[in-house]
Write a structure and sequence with these properties.
By secondary structure, the chain is an alpha/beta fold. The longest helix has 15 residues. Bound molecules: guanosine-5'-triphosphate and magnesium ion. Magnesium ion binds next to helix 1.
Length: 376
């Protein structure tokens, strides 16, 4: 579990004013001294992350942030850091009191909030309220209740990648071309995650490359429940698809799992009607050296130019480099975002929506460009 990548960990961020006890709470949750604690306001100047296993939650990362009311010379920079954490927070633990505007921002981003009355060992019982958990990092009071509430909120967010595509025990064929764009010696993360989930669900995942699909189908006594393919092999897979077998792609599964499939489908429809001088932003979560058959830099631009003409302008960005001003673009095409947590993808979607720029993702865009009829 200690190897769980950060994108799969539940992100629990602790927010509050200076000296409210944020770092002490992180230490209390982690059961060790991770962050520096002192009675000097503004002790925490940088975001501190601690990866831990939490009961009832599993792999989590607990994030300590600088005080929200830091008005020292560097305060604005520090509070900006705390606000940056927001876009990746699955759950916000808020030490009261904080400005109403901060709570309003959390609500706008639809981030579940757990309100905490900190240092409750110093606070008379009559000052406690029902909508906040009284916690003392010093005595441990309320800590268990806080952890239970975190676990409860996490359960309601638990989702399956292959929900609705197959049932427990089904046979599922996975088409995974190991071409020039595949990393050497390993499988990419979406494939690994889908295989793992299918195994957890008692399914039989059957893996092949595109040219092995017919043999895989022939080797089964009855058709599989579904075929999940790399987007680049859609056309080839479709030509082998037996009747009644569901077809989807890794990108589409992750669009549902991490994003907003309806919005991505609407974005793909707009893609087909874009003018010949359209400006398209292709955003990828991982920053890697461009490869010869790279989907975001080679395959997708090729398909886009074939469909819309050579006059379009394509801009590629990677990693955290997502422009704040998106209005220069007619469409954003995002990767499957296997390196980002769901909340971060949703915050990018929210930014695109707020600026009125349509958005889709690799798999949905490719399916539309190839006129594929998929089981979305
Ligand atoms: N009595 C009591 N003191 C606490 C508790 N939690 C924190 N403190 C004390 O409050 C002071 C501030 O604690 P920190 O955890 O550093 O607070 P912070 O919110 O991280 O502060 P900044 O990093 O400056 O924003 C320290 O002196 C802690 O020992 C608590 O539950 N009870
Ligand atoms: Mg601190």
């Amino acid at each position: 579990m200690s190897n769980t990548p950060i994108s799969e960990r539940v992100h629990i961020a602790i927010f509050g004013n200076c000296n409210s006890g944020k770092s002490s709470l992180l230490n209390a949750i982690a059961g060790q001294s991770v962050a520096v604690v002192s009675d000097i306001a503004g002790t925490t100047t940088d975001v501190v992350r601690k990866s831990i296993e939490l009961n009832g939650v599993g792999a989590a990362v607990v994030i300590d942030t600088p005080g929200l009311d830091d008005n020292t010379a560097l305060g604005t920079l520090r509070t900006a850091q705390s606000h940056k954490v927001l876009s990746k927070s699955d759950i916000a633990v808020v030490l009261l009191p904080v400005a109403d505007s901060f709570l309003a921002t959390l609500r706008q981003l639809e981030i579940p909030i757990i309100k905490v009355i900190p240092k409750c060992d110093l606070i008379p019982a009559e000052c406690r309220t029902d909508d906040a958990i009284a916690v003392s990092s010093t005595t441990g009071e309320g800590l268990e209740q806080l952890l239970e509430e975190i676990a409860r909120l996490c359960k309601s967010e638990n989702r399956l990648i292959t929900e609705g595509i197959c049932s427990a025990g089904d046979r599922v064929i996975l088409v995974m071309p190991q071409d020039a764009s595949a990393p050497k010696g390993r499988l990419i993360k979406p494939q690994v995650e889908v295989i793992r989930e299918l195994l957890d669900r008692g399914c039989l995942p059957i893996c092949c490359q595109t040219e092995g699909l017919q043999r895989a189908l022939d080797s089964l006594s009855e058709p599989p429940a579904a075929i999940i393919t790399d987007s680049s092999a859609f056309a080839a897979v479709k030509s082998h698809l037996p009747q009644g077998v569901k077809l989807t792609s890794f990108s589409i599964l992750f669009a549902r799992y991490k994003g907003d499939l309806e919005l991505f489908k609407a974005g793909a429809e707009i893609l087909l009607t874009l003018p010949s001088d359209a400006k398209i932003l292709i955003a990828e979560a991982c920053s890697h050296t461009p490869q010869s058959e790279d989907i975001g830099r080679v395959k997708l631009p090729r398909l886009l130019r074939k469909r819309l003409g050579e006059g379009i302008t394509i801009t590629n960005v990677g990693g955290d480099d997502f422009p704040e001003d998106l209005t220069a673009y007619d469409l954003i095409i995002h990767c499957g975002a296997c390196m980002f947590n769901r909340r971060y993808v949703l915050s990018r979607i929210a930014a695109a929506k707020a600026q009125g720029v349509p958005m889709t993702n690799y798999g949905v865009a490719i399916a539309a460009l190839l006129n594929m009829d998929l089981d979305l």
